[in-house]
Design a protein that fits this description.
This protein is α+β, with helices and mostly antiparallel strands. The protein has helices at about 10-25, 55-65, 80-100, 105-130, 135-150, 165-175, 180-190, 210-215, 250-275, and strands spanning about 1-5, 45, 50-55, 155-160, 200-205, 225-230, 235-245, 280. Strands 5-4-7-6 form a four-stranded antiparallel β-sheet. A two-stranded antiparallel sheet has the order 1-8. A two-stranded antiparallel sheet has the order 2-3. Strand 2 (about 45) and strand 3 form a beta hairpin.
């Protein structure tokens, strides 16, 4: 027996289940209550006196990944009608299961209780996370990361790739006579991905470039032509177009990653608090199988001595 410690690996599956479980709550019906569950909600169907709301259908569509969270779903659309039919089918199946008494089955009760606990837990997580993930929190973390970030340099490089060193040397000679790098790249480069854009590799940090390229580009000023240098695809002649400091992501670009981090942190801290106050025992130490006694080798049978007067063959 051991006391279970909080495990961060339990956080991500829990986050993934928040939306699905809340959708299940909405799609399971709300009994006889006719108060709209959401503002401007409307009843779109009724199944044996149980109302189906437009929000039920939209949440089911979200759970299936057909629309995003917060996206509208037109009640007149074909998608809405298709998902509505599925919600109606769910209600009919559930009603028939209750009629047959399947909901009284012990196994069904355990599964329903598990779903009930999952829904309550996910609602708690949603309420906690909604408080932790605010525009102010996102901006505060963004500014903190900007202060800590180390600015790196980006270099823009053009490439002419040849099969052999002799071909690459010929490229260097043509460039030395004043030919435009872009034109030579279009005519002679074997790199189809860049030859028609003048060999332009775009901006990248040195750690992204192939090692052989990074070694000769490092420290070179814009306008310099370096090479030939052998790489994986052949012999390269490179020209440094520009150098600049790497542009940090904007707040809008960084927002999705920050929201994901704040959400993870909010759930992690909640789980740590709950586990710290609760007594949790996990029984995962099965009894070791009894050791099998070693099998002793059978004693060798005595070899009978040959009768007197005979010769052993």
């Amino acid at each position: 027996m051991r006391v279970s410690r909080p495990s961060f690996r339990t956080v991500l599956p829990l986050l993934a289940s928040v939306l699905a479980a809340l959708t299940l709550t909405a799609a399971c019906g709300r009994g006889g209550a006719e108060t709209p569950p959401e503002k401007d909600d409307l009843i779109v169907a009724r199944v044996q006196d149980r109302s189906v709301w437009a929000s039920d259908v939209r949440r089911e569509a979200v759970a299936q990944g057909l629309v995003g969270e917060g996206e509208p779903l037109d009640v007149k659309s074909e998608l809405f009608r298709r998902v509505l039919d599925e919600v109606v089918d769910q209600k009919l199946l559930a009603a028939e299961a209750r009629r047959r008494g399947l909901d009284k089955n012990a196994a069904a009760q355990r599964r329903l209780e598990a779903v009930h606990e999952r829904i309550l837990g996910d609602m708690l997580v949603e309420s906690v996370v909604s408080g932790a993930v605010s525009d102010q929190a996102v901006e505060r973390l963004y500014q903190e990361q900007q202060r800590r970030a180390q600015t790196t340099e980006e270099v823009r490089v053009r490439l002419i790739l040849s099969h052999t060193k002799e071909q690459a040397d010929a490229v260097v000679g043509v460039l030395g006579q004043g030919a435009a790098f872009e034109a030579v790249a279009a005519q002679r480069s074997i790199d189809d991905a860049t030859r028609y854009s003048g060999g332009d590799l775009g901006y990248s940090t040195l750690d992204v470039l192939p090692d052989a390229y990074a070694a000769v580009v490092r420290g070179q000023a814009p306008g310099a032509v370096v090479g030939p240098v052998q790489g994986e695809g052949g012999w390269a002649v490179l020209r440094i177009e520009d150098r600049r400091l790497e542009t940090p992501p904007t707040l809008d670009q960084a927002r999705p990653l920050i929201v994901r981090y704040l959400t993870y942190e909010g759930v992690r801290q909640l789980l740590e608090q709950l586990r710290g106050k609760a007594q949790v025992e996990v029984f995962l130490n099965p009894a070791k199988p009894a050791a099998q006694p070693a099998v002793k080798p059978a004693p060798a049978s005595p070899v009978a001595a040959p009768p007197a007067g005979t010769v052993a063959s």
